[in-house]
Each structure stands twice: as structure tokens, then as C-alpha cells.
Amino acid sequence: MVSKIDLDHIEMMQYDVLKEIGNIGAGNATTALSMLINAKVDMKVPKVELLEFRELADIVGGAESLVVGILITLEGDIHGMMMFMLEKMSAHHLVNILMGKNIDNFEEFTEMDLSALMEIGNIISGAYLSSLSQLTKLFISSSVPLMSIDMAGAILSVPAIEFSKVGDKALLIQSQFGENDTEVNGYFILIPTLESYDEIMKSLGL
Amino acid sequence: MGEMIRVGMADLNICNSPNAITTLGLGSCVGIILYDPIKKLAGLAHIMLPDSTKVKMNENKAKFADTGTDLLLDLLLKAGAGKSNIVAKIAGGAQMFAFSSNNDMLRIGERNVEATKEKLKLLGIRLLAQDTGLNYGRTIEFYPETGELVIKAVGKEKKII
Q: Which CATH number do you get for residue A168?
């Protein structure tokens, strides 16, 4: 199947639609996060970007920046990957809030912390995907989340490789969230396959 | 001290002493170093996929283990490296996420390493050292002056191979 979306000549209209998807998905997810930690979390305007692979890691603060990455593979009407990335410091902060620890505690994560992080990833990605599913009326099922704590470049190589099978660029819908006082910073990155972009567009009547 | 030349994902470049060449945050991708220890000339390719013949969009040669190695060798020979001198070191090919055993998508690191080794064998290039697999990311730096490949990983001692 030939995709209707030509990555090199993407229309303004399509950009706007993808941006709106990011907006709604991340909005829902940010609300979920906010409720989880009982604090206000701000969301920045989402970006829809078409990037060369070598530029990919720059969007999250450089290839070597330390992050917690939670990866979910998407199945059903939409295929692709969804990544929830938190700066390592932010992840510590979230865990401290949730586990009732001292706020300055930045020791290595315990098993308990790790499962808490996984659960956060699960809830938040679920919120993102369910709003996407509601909007498009498409069935989206997601895998069990997988987690890795490492350099951003290394973690992003996993979705990048998936994308590299069909092209030389990655189109991603990226939303950044952050909370001013406590500095909980992170990203949602939605990377559907090319065919799935068509599905999304079609479902929205475009 | 020379300059540090940076190579991104699906990219390649060459460098000579006293300069060095690096790629940051290798995950499931493989960093392939080819070098001529006599001319002190080296090249680095950051490949993402094992086989260019299995993929339709294969114009970017640096993306694949097979065509990436060919192109890198070609560049080195053009820059004056002696074919019979050239040796190799490789790093990367990690599995970043623990997975349920049948998910082929996440086993790509292992396949990248296998394909790279096969390609080197085919070209008759000796693989001197490797630091591959496992489950963590690597930043690598290669120094043509000494032939040392420095590997850095989060929370681990610096390694030289």
C-alpha cells in the first residue's frame, strides 16, 4: 500500500491535524499525571516534526542526556510506537512524590521505584492513547510497557530503527510537559507507521 | 589534541590522526570502525539495519550494515588507506528493552551485529575487537593514532578495546 502522506511534502492541513492529535493526547495525559502527583503540570504546544535520524536525539536534550524511556508498541487499527520519556531527575522527583520519599533523594531507583515508574508510564500513555482512540474512533491496543533508563540516543534508536525500514526520516508528534516549581519534565512521542497516518487522516474525514 | 568528528545515526565519516571520531548514544544500532593502523586513517559508520536488500527505501547507504561497510571502505581507500591493512572494531547492538521472546522488532541489535560480522568476513576484513549486545547504550570514540576504541556507558567504567 502506498501511503498518501509524502513525508517530504506534507501539507499544512495534515500538520495541523497531527498537531491537534498531540494536543488532545498530551492534554489528557498531562491531566492524568497532574492527578497522580496532585500538582499542576503545564503542557507546551506540541510539535510535529519531520526529522533526519541524526537529528532525532537533539529534540530531547542531546543523545547522551539521561532519561527514563517507557515504550509501548501499538496494534489494532494503528500500528507504531508510543514513547513516554522523562528526564532522569524528573523521574526521581515523580517517584519521590508518589512514594512519599524525601524530595532530595536521588539515589538509584529501587525495584519498588521502578515498578512505580512503570505504572506511571502505563497510566499516562493509556490516557494519551484513549483520547486518540476516542477522537479517531479507531481501535488501538497497546503492548505491556517496556522501560529503559539510559542515554536518550540509545533509547530513541529503537523507534528510529522501526521507522528506518520505511524511510529516511521520522515524523513524530512530540509534546513536552513541565511543571515550573518541581521541574517534572518529559515528552510524549507518538510514532505511527506511515499507513497509520493514512488511517488517522481517513478516520477524521481528510 | 586534534578535533573530534561527530557521526550521527545513519551517517558515516572518516578521520585521520591526530583527530578522533565519535558517535553518541548507540543503542540497537552498531558503530563500525574500519581503520588502517599504518596510515592512521579511520572511518566510523553508525548503521541502523542489517540488510539493505530487505528494505525498499535504501538510498541512504550509511543506514545498513552491508552497504554502510562498503561505502566506508570505499571512502577509506579513496583517502589513501591500504586495503590489506584495514582492520575493524565494532560496538553497540544492544537490546534496549527487555522483551517477550518472540518480538523480532526488539531483537534488532543482535541482528545488526550478526550482519556486520558477516559483511566483514565477506570483505576479508579482520575484526580485532567488539563490545556488543547486552542492554545498555554506548558512546564510542575512536583514536586513529593509537587504534583505541573508547566505550562509555551510563554507570559503568570506561572501557578501551
A: 3.40.1550.10
Residues from chain B contacting residue A91 (CB–CB below 8 Å): none
Q: Does A56 touch chain B (CB under 8 A)?
A: yes
H helices within B55-152, ranges in order?
A: 65-78, 108-123
Three cell numbers written together for A6:
509524502
Tens of pLDDT, residue by residue over B92-106, are: 999 988 765 455 666
Inter-chain contact B57–A162, Cβ cutoff 8 Å?
Answer: no
In this predicted structure, what is the pLDDT of residue B13?
Answer: 95
B27 and A158 in contact by Cβ < 8 A? yes
pTM for the model stands at: 0.85
How buried is residue B45: exposed, middle or buried, by Cβ count under 10 Å (0-12/13-18/19+)? Answer: buried
Is residue A1, in this structure, part of any structural domain at all? no
Q: How far is residue B133's CA from residue B116's CA, in Å, rounded to a whole number?
A: 13
Q: pLDDT digit of tens for each residue in chain A (206 aa)?
A: 455 556 666 677 777 777 787 788 888 888 888 887 777 777 777 777 777 777 777 777 788 888 899 988 888 888 888 888 888 888 888 888 788 777 666 678 888 888 888 888 888 888 888 888 888 888 888 888 888 999 999 998 888 888 788 777 777 777 777 655 555 677 778 777 777 878 888 887 77
Taking CB atoms and an 8 Å cutoff, what residues of chain B touch A147? 97
Please indicate, yes or no, if residue A16 is contained in any of the structural domains.
yes
Q: Which CATH architecture has domain B4-160?
A: 2-Layer Sandwich (3.30)
Residue at A109 is within a domain: yes
Q: Do B137 and A62 touch (CB under 8 A)?
A: no
- The span from the CA of A102 to the CA of A96, in Å, is 6
| Residue pair A152/A63 in contact by the 8 Å Cβ criterion | yes
Cell 516549581 maps to which residue? A181
Query: Between chains, do A151 and B49 touch, taking CB under 8 Å as contact?
Result: no
Residues 6-35 of B with CB under 8 A from A: 8-11, 24-29
Domains in chain B: boundaries: 4-160
Domain range for residue A175? 7-203
Is this complex's ipTM strictly greater than 0.85?
Answer: yes
